Amino acid sequence: MLPPEIVVSKSDLYQRRLWGDPNEDLPIKPKYLVAFAVSLKQKVVVNAAVQKFSENFTILLFHYDGHINEWDEFEWSKRAIHIGTRRQTKWWYAKRFLHPDIVAPYEYIFIWDEDLGVKNFDAEEYIKLVKKYGLEISQPGLESNKDFAYQITQRRNDTEVHNSFINFVLLSMITHRFIEIMAPVFSKDAWRCVWHMIQNDLIHGWGLDFTLRKCVEPAHEKIGVVDAQWVFHHAVPTLINQKYNEVKS
Length: 249
Ligand SMILES: *[C@@H]1O[C@H](CO)[C@@H](O)[C@H](O)[C@H]1NC(C)=O
Ligand SMILES: *[C@@H]1O[C@H](CO)[C@@H](O)[C@H](O)[C@H]1NC(C)=O
What we know:
The chain is of the alpha/beta class. The protein has a single domain (about 25-249), classed as Spore Coat Polysaccharide Biosynthesis Protein SpsA, Chain A, CATH 3.90.550.10. Helices cover about 20% and strands about 20% of the residues. It contains seven helices and nine strands; from the N terminus they run E-H-E-E-H-E-E-H-E-E-H-E-H-H-H-E. Strands 1, 2, 3, 4, 5, 6, 7, 8 and 9 form a nine-stranded mixed β-sheet that branches. Strand 1, helix 1 and strand 2 (about 55-65) form a beta-alpha-beta unit. The structure holds 2-acetamido-2-deoxy-beta-D-glucopyranose (2 copies). One 2-acetamido-2-deoxy-beta-D-glucopyranose (NAG) binds next to loops. The site of one 2-acetamido-2-deoxy-beta-D-glucopyranose (NAG) has 3 residues, from loops.
């Protein structure tokens, strides 16, 4: 019933001051968003990861262990956005807090796990490659100390980028459990579609991989692994193991 000229349908996550000239609130308007689901136990690894994201990123932390203030020892924590609710997965948060109309200004959205080593990763370089190859849904190449199951996203050393959609699906069928996507990166348009497909009660993201292809056409060209910027999966117990490994609070 509202006249269209007074409807404001989109927002952003930019923080505003309570005083002064609103035009000066944002010296840099971040074009990208990175969200990590974190617990205090991974503080060191997460701190190292955040350093790889420039001031062109809005940093969002989903705290699934209830500890928030403890992060203030890091300088970047003051400009980060912190959302805390106990024992929820990153997909629970993403569905509730990353509605496409809320994250509308961001060109790319990273929704990452906390246990990723980023020594060989640089976010700005990553985005250059994603643009160069026109990837709508991507993930850095993955190295790991233990895996047999990650061939799909495993880093290759002979390419900058490889398109992995076919393997993605095949592997999902074989080892359903290991396919949880750990470091996905979505373009704004792909995210608008993926957000709508995340079921309200989706727990760990298993099964989401199957349907991602509905969001990008042609999937075999626009879903890929960026080998030249890669991450290391530490494979530490995180939220999934929490019921065995209680987080003290
Ligand atoms: C941030 O984005 C601007 C504009 O695209 C670019 O010139 C600058 O190099 C970026 N910052 C970093 C640290 O890469
Ligand atoms: C690239 O990977 C292949 C197969 O894993 C290996 O044999 C080769 O030594 C690697 N090359 C480099 C430069 O790391």
